[in-house]
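Dear colleague,

Thank you for sharing your sequence with our group. We've completed the structure prediction you requested, and as agreed, I am returning the results in plain text so they can be pasted directly into your records. Please verify that the sequence below matches your submission; if there's any discrepancy, let me know and we will rerun it promptly.
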Amino acid sequence: MIRSTGAPRAPATPYALPYGVFSDSGEPPRVGVALDDGVLDLAALADDGHLNPRDDIWRAPSLNAFMALGRAAWREAREELTALVDETPRGELSRYTRSQRTVRMHLPITVADYVDFYSSEAHATNAGRIFRPNADPLTPNWKHLPVGYHGRAGTVIVSGTDVRRPLGQRRGDRGAEPSFGPTARLDIEAEVGFVVGTPSMLGAAVRVDDFAEHVFGVVLLNDWSARDIQGWESAPLGPFLGKSFATSISAWVLPLDALDAAWVAPPVQDPRPAPYLRGTAARGLDLAIEVRLNGTPVSHPPFREMYWTPAQQLAHLTVNGASLRTGDLYGSGTVSGWQDDQRGSLLELSWNGASPITLSDGSTRTYLEDGDTVSITATAPASGGTRIALGEVVGTVTAARRA
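Please find the predicted structure tokens below.
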């Protein structure tokens, strides 16, 4: 432990201590931890004997090697870091700290697979009312299983990366032939992502109560969506090009252990879920999310109201024997609440373009325009009545490339 006298020590307090991958001054990417407005260089701390080097994993260009060590190693490292921060004056830590304003943040994980769910009852109900106004808004399977789709791992991007407006086919008006070109209905989906650390065997399902043995941490996630492309291509198989062009995640992965005080009872699930979807770990997370469009707060989705829980999603993902790999990422699905200002997509906020929203500069939006910037932030309860922040996910829309 670094020790000094005569300087104030950091008070014992709940720390988020999320992990990320950064580079500075032309050096290769390596693992760091966010503290205040800085980044603790874990490789440098390990070099000087203040942190277990764990086979030099802190110099790796992603978190995958660390995550693959499993839950015992994750908890040990967090305990080491918490003690280090608690017992060391900030002045002493400064030689191991880089400013978050000057470093470059990289994609924190090498994404193995990406799956996205559809687990907010409010969102699914709103979408159903928009697209099937004369039918039950929820499909018959919705309350029996966590509906999802398999996404594209190669287009998961780190916060701050621009999002190019995608091209694709769109339904023709009144029976006309489909057209091809840039999406005219570019949307966002405010989500929470879950990062798998410990793999599982092919053919072996992961139980609900083994969730914490496999999931390393959480990120904020924006599942960008081209609604017109998606609407034309989704019959009969579901999302493809309307989703696969970009999925943004925050640069910081918050360890699951930082969320001990944030677990809550989920909404009542009726009918009772199938046996493989039951367990004590089938809990909700009390995350308060904020969505901003060009700086204007447009939504505050409540994650605690998600019908299907993260542990149930993981159990469903693997119940057919699909294996987990280190670096797998799965999204919660759009987070929406029942109030108008809790809707986590522009599809809902503008009711598919029928009710434009007004921004603070007086401009209006139904869907995203080129140059628009979307940011998603969230906080969670911590011990002692405090709150911790999850990493922000930001993206700016750029014009479509030439066809």
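Summary note from our side: Residues 1-12 have pLDDT under 50 and may be disordered.

Kind regards,
the structure core
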